[in-house]
Amino acid sequence: MLSVHEVTTAYQGLVAISAISIEVAKGEIVCVAGANGAGKSTLLKSIAGAERPRSGTVSFDGTRIDGMAQHVITSRGIAYVPENRRLFPRLSVRDNLRLGSYLYRGEADREAPLDLVFQLFPRLAERLDQRAETLSGGEQQMLAIGRALMTRPRLLMLDEPSQGIMPKLVDEIFQAVKRIRDAGMTVLIVEQRMSECLEIADRAYILQTGRVLMQGSAVEIMGNPDVRKAYLGM
What we know:
Elements: E1 2-11, E2 14-24, E3 29-33, H1 40-48, E4 55-60, E5 63-64, H2 70-75, E6 78-81, H3 93-100, H4 114-120, H5 122-126, H6 137-149, E7 155-159, H7 167-182, E8 186-191, H8 194-200, E9 203-208, E10 211-217, H9 218-223, H10 225-230
């Protein structure tokens, strides 16, 4: 479904990722893990159109999308939830979700994805009239994911969804990711919480200083003694 081939992207004049290649097949959960500064977020931005690669190609369903505007990439079926969530803080939960369905404005079933959103995150149904800025960190992350689901994506990309969330809600977010895959979507997730990410993933890539250090099935990566020592503290 997604093919990133030897992509190099510079951020603020510095090369953040260098000749990175990854693939994501339909129906997979793929985890991209690594320390701060490894280039994880830049990789997702390069796919989503938020950053333009200096070289290399990004293809989705066999069509090159590198160089396309971000809203065009979204319309092709890729939803991106950035690290800082980018909610509209003074708007209600309801309005934030409706903005996610902007591509389908005027259509009778514009709000059809709400059923899935509320199944995944019942809290949002209880807080429809609250402003986004009044939600907890975990609830804001749920809203950001819910808004992305309103675009009806085939590929959902999540950047550090566990960041700034209490441990109880972290588990809830990761379980929701599994249910999103079960609903027929493909997921590419960037995470520092490598252990939790590998538990739900099919395959994984480990990045280090802007390059792919290791790749394989989640089980292989989890069982690698070097990974366990360097990243999992085992």
